[in-house]
Amino acid sequence: MKRFFQQKYIWLIATWMVSTAVLGGLATKLGPWYFSLIQPPWKPPDWSFGVIWTIIFVLSALAWMVAFESKPTQSQKNKITILFVLNGFFNVLWSVFYFRMHHPDWSLIEAFFLWGSVLAIILVMWPIRRVAAYLMVPYFIWVTIAMRLNWETLVLNPGAY
After folding, report:
1. Is 22 within a domain?
2. Domains contained in the chain, number
3. Is residue 25 situated within a structural domain?
4. For 14-30, what is the mean pLDDT?
5. Is residue 98 a part of any domain in this protein?
6. What backbone phi and psi angles, to 5 degrees, belong to 103?
């Protein structure tokens, strides 16, 4: 029975990772509006975002698996799962606001929810297994950097939305 539950959780985690990545990728449309924006000089090249997000999603899935392998209570498992589902929603919503709706102002506001969801995952995982929490730190750092990039894009492009 234990093996069945482990496989179920791995399926859930993989589904979260792939769904969030695919939906976020589909929402990301690099078209004329995006290329017309003035970007901060420190912005990473566009090709690097796919690499960065792939690493973040793999680390997040590993964090989730490590936390679940540490035998958390059912309540802790539920919290982690709910937080990851919310995180995936906020992740995709940011892309929709920014790339599809061309509203970097809305995406910046929404980014605080994304940032908070990553922080909440770290805080919930910390007492369960610290290594799981540490695996989420690159995600937290990246969202912080992305928020700064979002802010600077707004400042450099007044009225572009």
Report:
1. no
2. 1
3. no
4. 83
5. yes
6. -125, 80
Beta-strand runs (E) in the chain: none
Q: Considering the domain boundaries, does residue 27 fall inside one?
A: no
Q: What is the mean pLDDT of residues 124-131?
A: 96
**Six token digits for residue 13:** 């985690």
| d(C-alpha 74, C-alpha 120), whole Å | 17
Q: Is the CB of residue 75 less than 8 Å from the CB of residue 161?
A: no
The length of the chain is 161
Does residue 108 contact residue 147 with C-beta atoms inside 8 Å? yes
The domain containing residue 76 runs over which residues? 45-156
pTM above 0.85, yes or no: yes
Q: List, for residues 66-112, the tens digit of each pLDDT value.
A: 998 888 899 999 999 999 999 999 999 999 999 999 999 999 999 99
Q: What CA–CA distance (Å, rounded) separates 116 from 123?
A: 10
Residue 120, CB-side half-sphere exposure with 13 Å CA sphere: 16
Structure tokens at 47: 């090709």
Cα-Cα-Cα-Cα torsion 151, 57, 85, 122, nearest 10 degrees, comes to -80
